[in-house]
Write a structure and sequence with these properties.
By secondary structure, the chain is an alpha/beta fold. It is built from 11 helices and 9 strands. The chain starts with 13 loop residues before the first strand and ends in a 15-residue tail after the last helix.
């Protein structure tokens, strides 16, 4: 596949995109700045997310950082270019965030080391974050005199509530992984010494599940959490999903496999994007 923004070895800021055994990986690479995000990297992430979502040989998409750390946030030298750009309004970080949010397949942020500022917004755009026990998290716009992008603030409030969101943003403190998990910033924390094994196990479990069930559940949860979704639209989405489930092949295979005490082989394949 093409590698938008990819960089060989440690040539400079960019991303590397790979597909291996059904897992599509977006690897953040900016070794000189602990994988800090540049405008080019944000644009490349958006392109890679769409490309991996379209590939039939990709079951799950993960985002992780090169060299044992996720991301130190937005590159300070490109801060204005990333969140404002020449027109003073374009936010390339949020564009990458939205592109990840549009991926129909399961998306997981795999976090080791530092996950700071814009790095957390990018990670939180995935369906959930899995972190190493020695990872650390911080959202620090108050240290820079800026406002965190609205997409990140809205998601933070939805995850932790208004009071804790204010505490995280105003204090600009750094939190260890277990504390971040207790606050709702992280879904799962794995022992550092067994991190790769734990991630591999989780990805294998996801690949064994029904793609219909995972993608449809994700779609319904995202629609439910979108303030632009009217109640009637959400009701219609649920009605459509229920009809697809009844007519689809996975329910029969799931029941048969359970009764026969075997692993299911779910046959459903996505037939296109949902509205």
């Amino acid at each position: 596949m093409s590698v938008p923004g990819g960089t060989p070895h440690d040539a400079g800021p960019g991303i590397a995109v790979t597909v291996d055994a059904g897992i599509g990986t977006i690897m953040l690479r900016n070794p000189a700045q602990r994988n800090a995000l540049t405008r080019t990297m944000c644009r490349s992430i958006a392109e890679a997310a769409a490309e991996l979502d379209a590939r039939q040989d990709v079951d799950v998409v993960i985002v992780r950082g090169h060299g044992g750390t996720f991301s130190a946030g937005v590159s300070i030298g490109e801060l204005r270019d990333v969140i404002l750009d020449d027109d003073g309004a374009t936010d390339h970080l949020t564009a990458a965030d939205r592109a990840l949010g549009r991926v129909a397949k399961p998306t997981i942020a795999v976090v080791q080391g530092h996950c700071m500022g814009g790095g957390w917004q990018l990670a939180s755009a995935c369906d959930f974050i899995v972190a190493s026990e020695d990872a650390s998290f911080g959202i620090t716009p108050a240290k820079l005199g800026i406002i965190y992008p609205r997409a990140g603030v809205d998601r933070l409030v939805a995850l932790v509530g208004p009071a804790t969101a204010k505490y995280v943003l105003m204090s600009a403190r750094t939190f260890p992984a277990r504390r971040a998990q207790s606050m709702g910033l992280v879904a799962e924390v794995l022992p550092a010494e067994k991190f790769d094994d734990g991630v591999h196990l989780l990805l294998g479990e996801l690949q064994a599940r029904s793609s219909y069930s995972m993608q449809t559940t994700k779609h319904l949860i995202d629609r439910s959490g979108d303030p632009a979704t009217e109640p009637s639209e959400l009701a219609d989405a649920w009605k459509q999903a229920w009809a697809e489930m009844a007519a689809g092949p996975d329910i029969d295979e799931g029941v048969a496999a359970f009764l026969e005490r075997r692993d299911p082989q779910f046959p459903w394949q996505p037939g296109g994007q949902r509205g």
